[in-house]
C-alpha cells in the first residue's frame, strides 16, 4: 500500500520504495560559506566515477568554466561576483585598488558562450540581459578584463564586492521527478534514500531531463544515456565517504545521515546570523517544501536563483493525479464526440 | 591578460565578440526581449546592467497590464508581471527537453492514428466502407510512423524494448508505451483485414479471406476503444515535466490534443470519402475544432507570463497558423457539403492545422525551458507570496 504522501509531502523515501530495514537516509550538506571554489570536488568526482572531461576553456562569464551540472560534470562549482560587501562586515579590500571594470558588457557576451560539454543539452547559452543585470554595478570586476581592476582609477571609486562560491550537485529529492517519470525503471531509489541511474537499463528516452526541476540530469552525446551524481553509491555502500566530500579541503561538503546534517546546518546558520551574516539561509532542508526536502541541501548567502537554483521547485508529479483526471475527461469527450458524430445527423 | 597568451578557441571567440561591441553582435541577443522595467528593489536587479552593456533597450510591452478573462466567465484579472529576476549569469535553470522534432511529429501522428481509428470504427459500425477503409489504412500508417519517431528519438534506439520492463502509472511515457502496444497491433490487424478481398477464394489463403473480416472488425473496435487514451495521454506526457509552460497548461493539453486528433481524423475522412459518406467526418471536424480552439485559447491567455512562449516567435506563428487552418477547414467542411474538391481541401487544412498545433505547443514549451525568466519569476512570486502570508 503506497504512502498517502507517495507523490508529495514529507516522506522517508527508502521504506516507501520498498526497502525493508533500510539504513538511515544519507545525504550532503554543502555549506557555501566556507567554499573556496577550489573545484577539488569536481575533479575527485570525475576521477572516481570515470566521468569524461567537459571542456577546459574559460566561458567568459566568471571563473566558472564548468557552467552547469551536466552528464559530464556531476559537481559544479558556481562562482559569482557581486558588487556587495563580503560577509562578516569587514572592509576586506579597503587598501586594494578596485574600480571600473569590464562588467555587464563582459557578462552579456559571456552569456552567449556555449561550450561543447559533450552532453545534450549540456550548457545552452543564457540570456544576455539577465547576465548583464546580474553583473550590474560599477564595481563588477568582470572576467576577464584587459587590465587589472582599478589600474586607471583613483581610490574614490573603490567599493566593496564579494565572491560567492557554491558546489552544486544532484539534490536526491525526497520526491524525485526523474525517478517517477522514468519509463524503463532505470532510475531507482537506493536503500540510502538516494536516486541512481542504472546505466545498463537507461535507453536515453530523455524524460528525466525534462522532469528535473533543478536541471541536473543530462544526456551524454555519443553514449545517448542520462547520467548524474550517484552520491557515490559504490563508496557509501562500503561505508566510505563520497569522493567529493572526501576531497573537500574546507568541509564545505559534508556527508552523513540526513537527520544529523539537518541539525548541524541549523546550528551553523544560527551561528552565522549571530556573527552578523543575516543573509545566510538554508535551501532544500525543509521536508515540507515542493520536493519533500532534498537529500543534498545547501547553506546559501544569497537568493537561490543567484546560484542558478530554482527558488521554489515543485515535483511535477504532485499534479499527476489531476493531470490523469483531465486526460480522462478529454478522452471521454472525444469518445462522446465520435459517437455523436456517427449516431446523430442524417448524412 | 595579454593577447599573446595562448588561449582556447572558445575564449578567443568570446574575446572577439567582446571587442566587436554590441552593435555588431548577432540579432539573437537583441531579440531576447528583456521586459524588465527600470524600477525595482535592490541593486543589480534593474535594467541598468543592460544599459551599461549597451544592449538594445526593450520597451516594456507590459506597461499597461493586459486584462484577461478567466475561465467560466469570471472576471479574474491576471497581469503579466514585470519579468525582473535574478539569475546565474542569465543561464537557464532547467535543462530544455532533449526531444527532437521526432516527438512533435509523434504528437501529430499519434493523434492522427487515434482520430482515424475512431473514424474507421464508426464507418465500420454504421456501414460507411469508404470511411472504414481510409481510417484503418491511415491509422496503421500513422501508428507505424509513431513507432519509428519514438524509437528514433531514443538516445539508445536498440534498447527501445526496455520500455516494456515495467508498467508505471507515475510515468506517462510508460503508460503510453502500453497504450501503444495494445493500439498498434489492433490497428495493424484492422488495416490488414482490408486486404481480404484481394486474397484467392480457395486454399489456406482462402481461409484468411474468410477469417480476416471478422478479426478486423474486432481489432477495429479494440483500436477505437484505445484511441481516446492514445490521443490524450500525450497531454499528460508533456505536462508531467518541469517545463513551465507545459506543466502549467496541464488542464488544457489533453483537451487540445484530443480535439486536434479528432480534427485530423475527420480530415482523413473528408479527403478520402465521397460526400455521401462524409457526414460524420464533418461533425467530427466541428467537435474536434471546438475542443482544440477552446484549449489553445486558454493556454495562450490563462497562464499569465507562461502564456508568452505560446504567443511569440515560431511557436506563436505555428499556433496562429493552426488556428487559421482549423477555422478554414471547418468552414470549408460545412460549406462544401456537396463539393468533393472543397471537402478534400478542408480535410487537408484540418490535417495541416493539427501539425501546426502540435509543433507550436511543443516548441512553446521548449522555449519556456530555455529562458530562466519563465522558471524563476513565477517561483519567486510564489515564494514571496508564501513568505508574506507567514508574516
Short account of what is shown:
Chain A is of the alpha+beta class. Helices cover 26% and strands 14% of the residues of chain A.
Class based on secondary structure composition and strand pairing of chain B: mainly alpha
Main β sheet profile of chain B = none
User: How far is the first residue's CA from the last residue's CA of chain B?
Assistant: 50 Å
Distance between termini of chain A?
52 Å
Q: Under CATH, the topology of chain B is which?
A: Formate dehydrogenase/DMSO reductase fold
Unreliable spans of chain A: 97-102, 137-145, 147-151
The average pLDDT value of chain B, as a whole number, equals 85
- What's the number of helices of chain B? 14
User: Would you give the CATH topology of the domain at 25-80 and 163-314 in chain A?
Assistant: Alpha-Beta Plaits
Shape of chain A: globular
Strand-residue proportion of chain A: 5-15%
Model description:
- The complex is a heterodimer of chains A (347) and B (391).
- Helix content of chain A is 26%, strand content 14%.
- Chain A is of the alpha+beta class and 347 residues long.
- Chain A has a four-stranded mixed β-sheet with strand order 9-1-11-10.
- In chain A, helix 3 runs antiparallel to helix 4.
- The longest helix of chain A has 24 residues.
- Chain A is globular, with a radius of gyration of 23 Å.
- Chain A starts with 12 loop residues before the first helix and ends with a helix.
- Chain B is mainly α.
- Chain B has one domain: Up-down Bundle (Formate dehydrogenase/DMSO reductase fold).
- Chain B contains 14 helices and no strands.
- The radius of gyration of chain B is 25 Å and the shape is globular.
Amino acid at each position: 500500500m503506497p504512502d498517502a504522501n507517495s507523490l508529495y509531502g514529507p516522506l522517508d523515501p527508502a521504506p516507501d520504495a520498498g526497502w525493508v530495514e533500510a539504513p538511515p537516509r544519507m545525504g550532503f550538506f554543502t555549506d557555501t560559506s566556507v567554499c573556496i571554489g577550489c573545484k577539488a570536488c569536481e575533479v575527485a568526482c570525475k576521477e572516481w566515477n570515470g566521468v569524461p572531461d567537459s571542456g577546459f576553456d574559460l566561458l567568459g562569464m566568471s571563473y566558472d568554466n564548468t557552467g552547469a551540472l551536466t552528464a559530464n560534470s556531476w559537481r559544479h562549482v558556481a562562482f559569482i561576483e557581486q558588487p556587495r560587501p563580503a560577509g562578516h562586515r569587514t572592509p576586506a579590500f579597503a587598501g586594494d585598488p578596485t574600480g571600473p571594470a569590464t562588467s555587464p558588457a563582459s557578462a552579456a557576451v559571456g552569456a552567449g558562450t556555449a561550450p561543447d560539454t559533450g552532453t545534450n543539452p549540456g550548457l545552452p547559452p543564457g540570456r544576455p540581459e539577465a547576465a548583464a543585470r546580474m553583473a550590474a554595478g560599477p564595481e563588477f570586476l568582470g572576467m576577464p578584463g584587459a587590465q587589472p581592476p582599478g589600474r586607471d582609477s583613483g581610490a574614490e571609486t573603490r567599493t566593496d564586492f564579494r565572491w560567492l562560491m557554491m558546489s552544486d550537485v544532484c539534490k536526491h529529492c525526497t520526491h524525485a521527478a526523474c525517478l517517477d517519470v522514468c519509463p524503463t525503471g532505470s532510475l531507482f531509489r537506493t536503500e540510502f534514500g538516494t536516486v541512481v541511474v542504472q546505466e545498463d537499463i537507461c535507453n536515453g528516452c530523455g524524460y528525466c531531463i525534462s522532469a528535473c526541476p533543478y536541471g541536473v540530469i543530462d544526456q551524454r552525446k555519443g553514449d545517448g544515456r542520462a547520467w548524474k551524481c550517484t552520491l557515490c553509491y559504490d563508496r557509501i555502500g562500503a561505508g566510505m565517504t563520497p569522493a567529493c566530500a572526501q576531497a573537500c579541503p574546507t568541509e564545505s561538503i559534508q556527508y552523513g545521515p540526513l537527520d544529523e546534517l539537518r541539525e548541524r546546518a541549523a546550528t551553523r546558520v544560527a551561528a552565522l546570523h549571530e556573527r552578523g551574516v543575516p543573509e545566510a539561509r538554508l535551501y532544500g532542508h525543509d521536508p515540507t517544501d515542493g520536493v519533500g526536502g532534498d537529500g543534498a541541501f545547501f547553506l546559501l548567502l544569497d537568493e537561490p536563483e543567484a546560484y542558478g537554483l530554482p527558488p521554489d521547485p515543485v515535483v511535477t508529479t504532485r499534479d499527476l493525479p489531476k493531470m490523469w483526471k483531465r486526460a480522462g475527461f478529454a478522452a471521454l469527450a472525444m469518445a462522446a464526440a465520435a459517437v455523436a458524430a456517427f449516431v446523430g445527423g442524417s448524412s | 591578460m595579454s593577447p599573446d597568451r595562448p588561449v582556447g578557441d572558445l575564449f578567443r571567440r568570446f574575446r572577439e565578440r567582446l571587442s566587436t561591441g554590441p552593435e555588431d553582435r548577432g540579432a539573437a541577443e537583441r531579440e531576447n526581449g528583456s521586459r524588465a522595467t527600470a524600477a525595482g528593489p535592490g541593486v543589480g536587479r534593474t535594467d541598468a546592467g543592460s544599459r551599461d552593456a549597451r544592449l538594445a533597450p526593450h520597451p516594456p510591452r507590459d506597461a499597461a497590464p493586459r486584462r484577461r478573462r478567466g475561465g467560466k466567465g469570471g472576471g479574474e484579472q491576471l497581469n503579466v508581471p514585470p519579468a525582473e529576476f535574478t539569475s546565474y549569469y542569465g543561464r537557464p535553470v532547467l535543462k530544455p527537453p532533449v526531444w527532437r522534432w521526432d516527438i512533435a511529429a509523434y504528437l501529430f501522428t499519434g493523434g492522427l492514428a487515434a482520430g482515424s481509428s475512431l473514424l474507421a470504427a464508426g464507418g465500420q459500425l454504421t456501414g460507411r466502407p469508404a470511411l472504414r477503409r481510409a481510417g484503418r489504412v491511415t491509422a496503421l500508417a500513422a501508428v507505424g510512423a509513431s513507432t519509428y519517431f519514438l524509437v528514433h528519438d531514443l538516445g539508445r534506439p536498440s534498447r527501445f524494448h526496455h520500455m516494456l520492463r515495467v508498467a508505471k502509472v507515475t510515468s506517462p511515457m510508460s503508460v503510453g508505451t502500453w497504450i501503444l502496444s495494445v493500439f498498434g497491433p489492433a490497428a495493424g490487424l484492422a488495416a490488414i483485414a482490408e486486404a481480404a478481398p484481394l486474397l484467392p477464394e480457395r486454399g489456406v489463403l482462402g481461409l484468411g479471406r474468410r477469417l480476416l473480416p471478422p478479426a478486423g472488425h474486432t481489432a477495429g473496435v479494440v483500436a477505437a476503444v484505445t484511441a481516446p487514451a492514445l490521443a490524450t495521454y500525450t497531454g499528460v506526457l508533456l505536462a508531467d515535466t518541469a517545463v513551465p509552460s507545459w506543466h502549467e497548461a496541464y488542464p488544457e493539453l489533453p483537451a487540445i490534443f484530443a480535439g486536434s486528433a479528432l480534427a485530423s481524423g475527420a480530415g482523413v475522412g473528408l479527403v478520402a470519402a465521397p460526400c455521401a459518406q462524409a457526414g460524420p467526418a464533418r461533425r467530427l471536424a466541428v467537435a474536434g475544432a471546438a475542443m482544440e480552439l477552446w484549449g489553445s485559447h486558454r493556454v495562450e491567455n490563462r497562464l499569465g507570463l507562461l502564456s508568452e512562449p505560446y504567443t511569440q516567435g515560431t511557436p506563436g506563428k505555428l499556433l496562429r497558423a493552426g488556428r487559421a487552418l482549423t477555422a478554414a477547414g471547418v468552414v470549408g467542411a460545412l460549406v462544401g457539403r456537396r463539393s468533393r474538391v472543397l471537402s478534400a481541401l478542408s480535410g487537408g487544412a484540418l490535417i495541416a492545422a493539427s501539425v501546426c498545433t502540435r509543433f507550436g505547443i511543443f516548441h512553446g514549451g521548449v522555449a519556456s525551458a530555455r529562458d530562466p525568466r519563465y522558471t524563476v519569476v513565477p517561483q519567486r512570486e510564489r515564494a514571496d507570496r508564501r513568505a508574506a502570508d507567514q508574516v
